[in-house]
Design brief:
The chain is of the alpha+beta class. The chain has one domain: Jann2411-like fold (Orthogonal Bundle). It is built from 7 helices and 8 strands, in the order H-H-E-E-E-E-H-H-H-E-E-H-E-E-H. Strands 1-4 form a two-stranded antiparallel sheet. Strands 2-3 form a two-stranded antiparallel ribbon. It has a two-stranded antiparallel sheet with strand order 5-6. Strand 2 and strand 3 form a beta hairpin. Helix 2 crosses helix 6. The longest helix is centred in the C-terminal third of the chain and has 20 residues. It is globular and about 70 Å long. The relative contact order is 0.13.
């Protein structure tokens, strides 16, 4: 779990998924006169290995190959594309196809533990086994409904993934005071221009 996921009270069961989706920062807006810099935490295979090691998804020093790196980026892209849809629209075949193709590279094995609980563990035994943990989070979140609260900000200049903690789970923006306010102000100005 990162400082960011703790700051926004993302449940531990979805924290790695949240952090992984947000390794790509596409925000491009100016706030208080300062332009937000876009960035990607995963520019190289070494960046991915460091990101995974920081979350104990891989042993420090484990090598990620360029091919593994491309698979990981494919998973991130498919995950972000999936999360950009409203929860009700995520179950359409076209929406799930790309994500299903991406997660096929990260198979899981169901295993019964000593407490008679069924656990999912990575079937892979290479450096990307840790990303199968994210697929398990995806599975658990879809099964218990918490994945529906993981959303992408509706503001085109943001597109950050956030966890919707509102009681009715109807938030559209990562921060109403920032992204929501910009969109509402823009809509208000457009209505004023149309009225004139």
């Amino acid at each position: 779990m990162s400082k960011e996921s703790r700051k926004f009270h993302v449940p531990d069961a979805l924290a790695n998924l949240y952090d992984f989706a947000n390794t790509l920062d596409l925000r491009h807006f100016t706030h208080h006169g300062v332009e937000h810099p876009q960035g990607d935490e995963l520019k190289t295979p070494q960046d991915l290995a460091s990101w995974m090691a920081a979350r104990r998804l891989i042993r420090a020093g484990t090598k990620v190959t360029p091919a593994m790196f491309e698979r990981a980026l494919g998973l991130r892209t498919a995950l972000r594309e999936y999360l950009q849809h409203d929860p009700e629209g995520r179950h359409q075949r076209g929406v799930t196809r790309a994500l299903n193709e991406a997660i096929a590279a990260f198979p899981l094995i169901a295993e019964l533990d000593s407490a008679r609980e069924v656990l999912l563990r990575p079937a892979r035994e290479d450096a990307l086994a840790g990303l199968s943990t994210l697929v398990a989070e995806l599975y658990d979140g879809a099964r218990n409904g918490s994945l529906d609260r993981l959303k992408m900000c509706a503001a085109d200049e943001c597109r950050r993934v956030f966890f919707d903690r509102s009681k009715p789970a109807t938030r559209r923006w990562c921060m109403s005071s920032l992204c929501g306010n910009r969109i509402k102000t823009r809509a208000y100005r457009a209505r004023q221009r149309a009225a004139q």
